[in-house]
């Protein structure tokens, strides 16, 4: 370092001699000789590489065999100054958001490079819809006219120019290359029909008509004239025509059979199966028997008997050819049993004597859906899939009245009030509840708030209100004779409840839910669910199995889709007994009103059984 800094003196000495604006002459360096030009060039090259002469000093310290002759060198004290900043705005490739001009001419290769860089995390959802199974959707900006022409060209000729590729060497085609080559790669807007095509089009056009004629033959049609051959029908293949004629014949025969059935159904009649219509005292089967061990006509206010769970079957009624859909016991006494079946028949059975079929009611063309007694039991209603509701006389078997509004009835129910026995309600498949007056023979009210077929009707609150359930998974409360919903019950977890039964205390009603449980609601007008009472453990999903209560209200029972009859304790909700009753679905059952432990079950196997 002494050699390098020999030209510098202390602060008391004079300043060194400046050889130039950017160099300082060193005093301790000798002048180079002419004979040693090669050595001088090497020294100058090393001096340029190392401005401070570190390599020279290191070489001397390491004891290298370098020549003792020292060449003159210059020390660059000023830094290099660039004329333009490469990161300045004038040369920047990446512009600021406020810049409107790019000062650098980018090359074609740079501009056509694929997009590279990190993925935008905020555009993932936006780009998700652009991914397809066969490729990737690209955004293309073009005017509506160009897009319409490209789309029309592709629809008509099967090809179109690809707007995403701009190439002058070849035409980028999407679709059929052969069609594009034949048409000269033209779009449909640049194509002109040939002379023969124009003649063919003109030949097919209809005559415009005479401008002076408004109607009739040769009337003026102008551009609205039909093309010749528009009304021509292609020849029908003979085999297809024969199949169509056979299908039409089968359809006509089926319609005729349906008409014959409806004609037979209008001829309502009944068949009495007993020996005599009256006994020695002139009494019919309508008379409540008094020769039984049980008092069948109890006085009002008498407490119901204590119920016990049944254990065995003591009688089986057979007579229906198909499944039984509904059964009803005679009001108050229960000495008669009414059953409706899928074999279109309604039968009346004896309960306490021989257990025979007393009368068969014929008049429906299709399966019977529901039956209902009035308060006295002198009349009953039958609803069928033939879209008819019929009123029958229980004693004589005569059809008093038939009613139909063209819709399928699901449930029928008389008004329980004794002064309204001429009015009944019917829940229909068309989401409505109709109120029919038998005296006026017309519909006097319609309740139409449900969104699905109506399945059940239950009168509550001293018959001033009624509750309906539907396939729309809701429960609706109504004021009688007012078609406005006063209570609407609908929860996301609710299922359809096709069967509803009222508790003997009239304080609750139980609903058969299609998620294999029985839910209980209050019947005092609030219709609040009693969440403490829930009965489960049976399988009824898909079947409208009826619910039953023992006369004293101690037990609640339900049929199942597997042919079982399940009993729960009303207070604690525990299963008390499971009885294998039938081979198929136990669709309905009734507790005898004056017996301790007897009930009747009906199943789709066509049997009706009495249990005790």
UniProtKB/TrEMBL annotation:
Residues 33-44 have a biased composition (Acidic residues). InterPro entries: PRPF17, WD40/YVTN_repeat-like_dom_sf, WD40_PAC1, WD40_repeat_CS, WD40_repeat_dom_sf, WD40_rpt. The keyword Repeat applies. Gene3D superfamilies: YVTN repeat-like/Quinoprotein amine dehydrogenase. CDD domains: WD40. Residues 1-82, 190-215 are annotated as: Disordered. The keyword Ligase does not apply. Residues 53-68 have a biased composition (Low complexity). WD repeats lie at residues 317-351, 361-402, 447-479, 579-612. Its main location: nucleus. One of its GO terms (molecular function) is mRNA binding. One of its GO terms (biological process) is mRNA splicing, via spliceosome. It is found in: Nucleus. PROSITE patterns: WD_REPEATS_1 (PS00678), WD_REPEATS_2 (PS50082), WD_REPEATS_REGION (PS50294). It comes from the Eukaryota. GO terms for cellular component: catalytic step 2 spliceosome. Keywords: mRNA processing, mRNA splicing, Nucleus, Repeat, Spliceosome, WD repeat. This is Pre-mRNA-processing factor 17. It comes from Kwoniella dendrophila CBS 6074.
């Amino acid at each position: 370092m002494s050699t390098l800094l020999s030209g510098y003196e202390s602060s008391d000495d004079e300043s060194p001699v400046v050889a130039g604006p950017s160099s300082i002459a060193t005093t301790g360096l000798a002048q180079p000789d002419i004979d040693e030009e090669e050595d001088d060039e090497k020294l100058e090259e090393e001096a340029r590489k190392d401005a401070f002469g570190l390599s020279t000093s290191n070489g001397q310290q390491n004891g290298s065999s370098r020549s003792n002759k020292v060449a003159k060198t210059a020390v660059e004290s000023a830094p290099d100054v660039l004329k333009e900043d490469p990161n300045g705005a004038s040369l920047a490739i990446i512009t600021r958001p406020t810049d409107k001009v790019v000062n650098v001419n980018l090359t074609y290769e740079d501009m056509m490079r694929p997009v590279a860089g990190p993925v935008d995390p905020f555009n993932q959802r936006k780009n998700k819809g652009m991914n397809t199974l066969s490729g990737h959707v690209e955004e293309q900006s073009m005017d509506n006219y160009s897009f319409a022409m490209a789309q029309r060209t592709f629809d008509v000729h099967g090809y179109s120019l690809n707007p995403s590729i701009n190439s002058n060497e070849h035409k980028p085609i999407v679709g059929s290359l052969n069609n594009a080559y034949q048409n000269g790669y033209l779009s449909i807007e640049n194509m002109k029909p040939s002379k023969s095509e124009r003649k063919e089009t003109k030949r097919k056009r209809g005559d415009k008509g005479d401008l002076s004629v408004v109607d009739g033959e040769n009337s003026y049609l102008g551009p609205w004239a039909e093309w010749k051959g528009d009304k021509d029908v292609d020849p029908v293949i003979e085999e297809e025509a024969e199949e169509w004629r056979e299908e039409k014949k089968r359809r006509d025969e089926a319609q005729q059979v349906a008409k014959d059935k409806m004609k037979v159904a209008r001829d309502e009649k009944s068949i009495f199966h007993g020996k005599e219509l009256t006994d020695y005292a002139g009494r019919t089967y309508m008379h409540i028997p008094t020769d039984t061990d049980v008092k069948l006509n109890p006085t009002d206010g008498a407490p119901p008997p204590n119920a016990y769970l049944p254990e065995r079957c003591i009688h089986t009624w057979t007579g229906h050819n198909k499944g039984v859909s509904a059964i009803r016991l005679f009001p108050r006494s229960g000495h008669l049993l009414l059953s409706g079946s899928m074999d279109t028949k309604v039968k009346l059975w004896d309960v306490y004597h021989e257990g025979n079929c007393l009368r068969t009611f014929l008049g429906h063309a299709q399966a019977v859906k529901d039956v209902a007694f009035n308060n006295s039991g002198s009349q009953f209603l039958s609803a069928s899939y033939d879209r008819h509701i019929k009123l029958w006389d229980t004693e004589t078997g005569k059809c008093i009245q038939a009613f139909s509004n063209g819709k399928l009835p699901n449930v029928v129910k008389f008004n329980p009030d004794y002064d309204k026995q001429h009015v009944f309600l019917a829940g229909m498949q068309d989401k409505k509840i109709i109120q029919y007056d038998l005296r006026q023979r017309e519909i006097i009210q319609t309740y139409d708030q449900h969104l699905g077929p109506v399945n059940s009707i239950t009168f509550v609150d001293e018959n001033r209100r009624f509750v309906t359930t539907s396939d729309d998974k809701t429960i609706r409360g109504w004021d009688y004779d007012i078609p406005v919903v006063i209570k609407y019950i609908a929860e996301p977890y609710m299922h359809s409840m096709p069967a509803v039964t009222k508790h003997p205390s009239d304080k609750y009603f139980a609903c058969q839910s299609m998620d294999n449980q029985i839910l209980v609601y209050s019947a005092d007008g609030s219709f609040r669910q009693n969440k403490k009472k829930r009965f489960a453990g049976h399988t009824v999903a898909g079947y409208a199995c009826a619910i039953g209560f023992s006369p004293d209200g101690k037990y609640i029972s339900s049929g199942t889709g597997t042919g079982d009859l399940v009993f729960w304790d009303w207070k604690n909700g525990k299963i008390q007994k499971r009885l294998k009753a039938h081979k198929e679905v136990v669709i309905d059952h009734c507790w005898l009103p004056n017996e301790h432990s007897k009930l009747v079950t009906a199943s789709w196997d066509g049997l009706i059984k009495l249990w005790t």
